[in-house]
TrEMBL record:
PANTHER family for this protein: FAD-BINDING PROTEIN, FLAVIN-DEPENDENT TRYPTOPHAN HALOGENASE
Record-listed L-tryptophan binding positions: 342, 346
Binding residues annotated for 7-chloro-L-tryptophan, in chain numbering: 79
Keyword Nucleotide-binding: yes
Source domain of life: Bacteria
Active site location: 79
UniProt protein name: Tryptophan halogenase
Taxon lineage: Bacteria, Pseudomonadati, Pseudomonadota, Alphaproteobacteria, Caulobacterales
List of residues binding FAD: 14-17, 333
UniProt feature coiled coil, ranges: none
Signal peptide: none
Keywords, in A-Z order: FAD, Flavoprotein, Nucleotide-binding
Listed GO MF terms: monooxygenase activity; nucleotide binding
C-alpha cells in the first residue's frame, strides 16, 4: 500500500450507523486501519429503527454473523414485506412483498401476463397470489427452505431491536480492535487552509486525531453540517411528514412475519412485531394535525398493552447536499432522512459503507472520489424519495385535507414519467442506483391503483391456453410453498434457542 494510505479512521457517533460503520470497516480493512469510535451516553441515540429490507442479510453475512445468533441477540423476527392498509381508500389493503411475484416468461416480466390474463377473465384480481412471500406472510409462516419441489426460497429481512443490534455490532467491532471512546465532542480542529479535519476535541481536554472522519452523529450532523456547512436539500414539499410518536406495546398474539402500515388522517402508523415487544409509531405532518391529536391516534390504535408513554421525534425530510465533504463522510441520519415507510434508513448506512469502500481514499483525497460518492448517493436518495412519494400521490383518498393535498400535489418529474409509462403500457424499469427493483415498483403501483391500460404486446406470442396453464402452475407452486413452511412462531422457537444471558 502507498505511504499516504488512510491509517486513522475516527467514527463520530455510536448509534446504529456508527456501530455498523465500525463493524464493516474493521472487517473490510483489517489491521491496515486504526479505527476509533467516539460516542456519548449522555447524548444517547435516536433509539428507533426496527424494520429492515433483505439487503441487511448481505451485510450480516459479510461480517460473518450467524443469523440465528443475530435473531436471538436482537429479539428479532422475520419480515417478508409490508402490508399497506387504507392507503388507496379506507378498507383497502395490499402488500409490498420482498422478492419476485411470479416468474418472467422469456424476456417479458410476469405482471404483463397477469394483466393480459386478467383482461381475458382467466386470472383473478389478487396479483399477490403469485408471490410465495405474500402468501407465507398472510398465513403467518416462514422457513428458510421450502418443503416443495421446484420452489424458490422466500426473500426475507428482519424486524429487530436497533439498540440491541448496535450492542451486538459493538461487541463484534471491539473484538476486532475498534477502540471505543466515551465522551462528548465539544470542538473540532481543522486545517486553516484546506478545511480538512485534524482532530475532534472531547470534554476533559482529550483529542482524537484522524485522517478520515465518519460522521454518524445523528440529525445534527456535527461534522458534516455544524463544522463543514455542507447544506441540506429539503424535500418536505413532497413528503411533509416531520414528526413521529413512537411507543412499545405487548400482546399475546404470535408475531406476524411482516410490517403493517396503516394510513391515518394526517399520516400513517407502523406496527413492527419483535419477540419481546411490538414497536408502534405514528408518523405525521405537523402542518396537517397537532401533536396531541397525533399521540391520541397512536395510543387509541395500539393492539395490546402500552409499555411506555409515547416519545416524540421530529425530523426534516431530505438529504445532505454533500455527504462526503473534504475528509468527512456522513452516514445515517447525519446524511439525510426519509420517513420509515419502506424501512430504508439503515440500508442507506449499508450502501453508503459499500460505496465508501469502493471509493476508498487510500491514495489520498482526490476530489473525484468524493464527487462520485456524492453523485451516487444523490441518485440513490432521489430514487427512494420517488418511491415513497408514489404511496401518497397514487391514492384515491380525498376524505381528509391531508390526503386531498397528497393526491393533488405536484410530484418530481422523474416519478411522473414512471407513473405515466406504467399507466400507459405496464412498463417500469429500475434506474441507476435504484434500491427498489421492478417487482417493488409493480407491486406498489398496482397496490395504489395505477392500472395499466395495456400489457406488453409480446404476451400475444404465447397461446392464451398455454399462458393460463403456466399461470395456474405458478400460483399452485407459490401456494404450496407457503403452506409447506412452519409457522413463524415455530421457526422463531427453533431459531431462538435459549436467550443469551443479559
Ligand atoms: P443516532 O442514533 O442519533 O446516533 C447518533 C450518535 O452520535 C449517538 O451515539 C450520539 O451519542 C452521538 N453523538 C452526537 N453528538 C455527539 C457529540 N457531541 N459527542 C459525542 N457523540 C455524539 N430506519 C430503518 O432502517 N428502519 C426503520 O424502521 C426506521 N424507523 C425509524 C423511525 C423513526 C421515527 C425515525 C426518526 C428513524 C427511523 N429509522 C429507521 C432510522 C434509524 O433510526 C436510523 O437510521 C438509525 O438508527 C441510525 O441512526 P444514527 O446512528 O445515524 O443516529
Amino acid at each position: 500500500m502507498a505511504d499516504n494510505r488512510i491509517g486513522r479512521i475516527v467514527i463520530v457517533g455510536g448509534g446504529t450507523a456508527g456501530w455498523m460503520s465500525a463493524a464493516m470497516l474493521a472487517r473490510a480493512l483489517g489491521p491496515a486501519a486504526k479505527i476509533s469510535l467516539v460516542e456519548s451516553e449522555a447524548i444517547g441515540t435516536v433509539g428507533v429503527g426496527e424494520a429492515s429490507i433483505p439487503q441487511l442479510r448481505n451485510f450480516n453475512a459479510f461480517l460473518g454473523l450467524d443469523e440465528d445468533a443475530f435473531l436471538r441477540a436482537t429479539e428479532g423476527t422475520i419480515k417478508l414485506g409490508i402490508e399497506f392498509v387504507d392507503w388507496l381508500h379506507p378498507g383497502h389493503r395490499y402488500m409490498h412483498a420482498f422478492g419476485p411475484v411470479g416468474r418472467p416468461l422469456g424476456t417479458t416480466p410476469f405482471h404483463h401476463y397477469w394483466l393480459d390474463a386478467r383482461r381475458r377473465g382467466t386470472a383473478g384480481d389478487d396479483f399477490w397470489a403469485w408471490s410465495a412471500n405474500a402468501l407465507a406472510a398472510r398465513a403467518g409462516r416462514f422457513g428458510r427452505t421450502p418443503g416443495e419441489a421446484g420452489a424458490e426460497p422466500l426473500t426475507w429481512a428482519f424486524h429487530f431491536d436497533a439498540a440491541l443490534y448496535a450492542r451486538h455490532l459493538r461487541t463484534y467491532a471491539q473484538a476486532r480492535g475498534v477502540q471505543r471512546i466515551e465522551g462528548r465532542i465539544i470542538g473540532v480542529d481543522q486545517d486553516g487552509e484546506s478545511g480538512f479535519l485534524r482532530a475532534v476535541a472531547l470534554e476533559g481536554e482529550r483529542r482524537v486525531e484522524g485522517d478520515l472522519f465518519i460522521d454518524c452523529s445523528g440529525f445534527r450532523g456535527l461534522l458534516i453540517e455544524e463544522t463543514l456547512k455542507s447544506g441540506y436539500e429539503d424535500w418536505r414539499k413532497w413528503l411533509p411528514m416531520d414528526s413521529a410518536w413512537a411507543a412499545p406495546s405487548r400482546d399475546d398474539a404470535p408475531p406476524v412475519p411482516y410490517t403493517r402500515a396503516w394510513a391515518r388522517d394526517a399520516g400513517w402508523q407502523w406496527r413492527i412485531p419483535l419477540q419481546h415487544r411490538t414497536g408502534n409509531g405514528h408518523v405525521f405532518s405537523s402542518a396537517w394535525t397537532d401533536k396531541d391529536a397525533a399521540a391520541r391516534t397512536l395510543m387509541a390504535n395500539l393492539e395490546g398493552e402500552a409499555l411506555a408513554e409515547p416519545r416524540l421525534l421530529t425530523f426534516v425530510t431530505g438529504r445532505r447536499r454533500k455527504s462526503w465533504n473534504r475528509n468527512v463522510v456522513a452516514l445515517g441520519l447525519a446524511s439525510g432522512f426519509m420517513e420509515p415507510l419502506e424501512s430504508t434508513s439503515i440500508h442507506l448506512v449499508q450502501s453508503g459503507l459499500a460505496r465508501l469502500l469502493a471509493l476508498f481514499p487510500d491514495q489520498g483525497f482526490d476530489p473525484l472520489l468524493a464527487d462520485e460518492f456524492n453523485r451516487q448517493t444523490e441518485q440513490e436518495y432521489a430514487c427512494i424519495r420517488d418511491f415513497l412519494v408514489l404511496h401518497y400521490k397514487a391514492t384515491q383518498r380525498e376524505d381528509t385535507p391531508f390526503w386531498a393535498s397528497r393526491k393533488a400535489m405536484e410530484i418530481p418529474h422523474s416519478l411522473a414519467e414512471r407513473m405515466a409509462l406504467f399507466a400507459g403500457s405496464g412498463r417500469v424499469f429500475s434506474r441507476d442506483e435504484d434500491l427498489f427493483k421492478e417487482s417493488s415498483w409493480v407491486q406498489v403501483l398496482l397496490g395504489q391503483g395505477v392500472t395499466p391500460a395495456a400489457a406488453h404486446p409480446m404476451t400475444a406470442v404465447a397461446a392464451d391456453a398455454q399462458v393460463d396453464g403456466w399461470l395456474d402452475d405458478l400460483a399452485r407452486i407459490a401456494g404450496r410453498t407457503a403452506a409447506s413452511l412452519p409457522t413463524h412462531a415455530a421457526f422463531l422457537a427453533a431459531a431462538g434457542g435459549p436467550r443469551p444471558a443479559q
